[in-house]
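As agreed, record minuted below.
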Amino acid sequence: MRIIITGGTGLIGKALSSHLIKQQHEVIILSRNPRTARGVPFGAQVEEWDAKTAQGWGKLVEDADAIVNLAGAGIADQRWCERRKRLILESRIHAGQAVVEAVKAAQNPPKVV
């Protein structure tokens, strides 16, 4: 299967993508900065995205079998002040909206989102 993972450079995303690659799946990780994405499993394709829109990566949805959305600001990176809580919430909302936008625009959308 061809699987797109948003948030693939985070703790869960790295573990999931590593497991999927070992199972012979094609993994595409969407990253805000693919040049500095650390710990990405060997064999994963990394594509750039702004975590807010489907621009640039939306075309990848056409050939994907599944999309896993794990994107969002890290929950253990800092104390949860009001500003941080708002960032955590908004980052997940924007990423989710971008995934929905890409799926809705696809002629042949993935079966699993």
Remarks:
- The chain has one domain: 2-105.
- The radius of gyration is 14 Å.
